[in-house]
Design brief:
It is built from 16 helices and 19 strands. By secondary structure, the protein is an alpha+beta fold. Helix 9 runs antiparallel to helix 11, helix 14 runs antiparallel to helix 15 and helix 15 packs antiparallel against helix 16. The two termini are 35 Å apart. One of its GO terms (cellular component) is ATP-binding cassette (ABC) transporter complex.
Amino acid sequence: MLNRTALGAAVLATLFALAADAKTLRWSSQGDILTMDPHAQNEGLNNSVSDHVYEPLVTRGKDLKIEPCLALSWKAEGTSAMRFKLRPNVKFHDGAPFTADDVVFSVERALAPTSNFSPYMQGITGAKKIDDLTVDITTSGPNPVLLAQLTEVRMVNRAWAVKNNVVRPQDFKNKEETYGARNANGTGPYVLKSREPDVKTVMVLNSNWWGKMEGNVNEIVYTPIKSDGTRIAALLSGELDFILDPPVQDIPRLKSDGKIRILEGNENRTIFFGFDQWRDELTYSSVKGKNPFKDQRVREAFQLALDLEAIKTQVMRGLAFPTGVMFAPQVDGYDKSIDIVKKPNPERAKKLLADAGYPNGFEVTMDCPNNRYINDEKICQAAAAMLARINIKIKLNAMPRATYFPKIQNFDTSLYMLGWGVPTFDSLYALQSLLRTNALKGGDGNFNLGKYSNPKVDAAVDALKTEVDPVKRKALAKEVLTIHAADVGHIPLHHQVIPWAMRSGVSAVHRADNRLTVKWVKIQ
């Protein structure tokens, strides 16, 4: 038997070994996290960070298949409810137990008017507590994508929200500040330690987490660095371990550096341009008294002015797939037969403008983020140069994402760029959010920021909401995309290819949703 001294030494040795294995992950991208409120802003990086602190009932594994998270099992209760058995003995970061009351509260919170998560709440009417560890999610009828939607509905502790006056989500688009924007209380594997907007966000390991930690990261330090050169220099010098968005022009050089690893994969995200199609006069244009974007010929002229292959090769350095549709091939409902990229035709574009009454073109402001998507501002600059060939003068208005999203979400734009990922991997999420007529409620057209509208599209999208037959769902999606392409409702540009850059001793799981999941990260 070991004596006390030997036993103490053995325990200390074990603790020192664990401490030595625990690592800090220092990572960066060009823009900052927008808010810590898990229902305030539906944006890719924001959701990725939220996943470390807050958890949903069901989640996606390394293969992107749906698997249990805070719910252990589920089953349908008729056609208008799904019953979930909750994981027992789960605690929030402040020690409060996770129960059905928190699920009911979180669902109601995500349904609130200030929530930005209406695309995930389509068809959901509420939640009903059965007992402390059983809850029903109620729906307005059959919902074929309910589980996929719930992967993005994160659970908030009701008592904490009441105590800190964050019962409803932060109104991000109107620049509201709340306690929940800089503080958090979830059940996830990491606890928010500190939050300095545009400076640094620090999370530390949740020692009471219910799940299995496959990696060895006990602290996460996220630092936004807008300058491409500064981010790369920090990675090469060892000040950073991981970069989510290395500049594409540096990828060949990074691949040749033995100290750096590059992981690449197709992202489930489509970059596109949208037009104001609802105002009688554009807010930001030289055209007075009317709105040229209400004319399909003008929208088609803009499309024919753009050379998507040139954007791919010259701006994206090959890391893009030009497209003619609004969602990527990974999404259920994608049909290659209608993914047709129109070849540039400046002469026809000029004729269309002339036929529409603009033989000399016109000037319009293009709103563009400069720290959200890969080479976003450079794409807009390239598009502006191409449009100049048909006498369209673009006044480029590029800005950081923290300013950009509130602006365009308030419809304060005439021409804009947006990127749209599909976390549910189902066409409804994109079609309802981007193409259906904006209804200001229920998720219909919530990111249809130019207010494109076609009754036939609306009817097909509404049918898609409850259709459970996969063949019929694909046919409805094809119908919507065919109509939309003829209308030139938006101009799809490309699906992104995402490279990640990291030090050679870092291993991570690269998924099509472009989310770094730190519980799987190992650092040597």
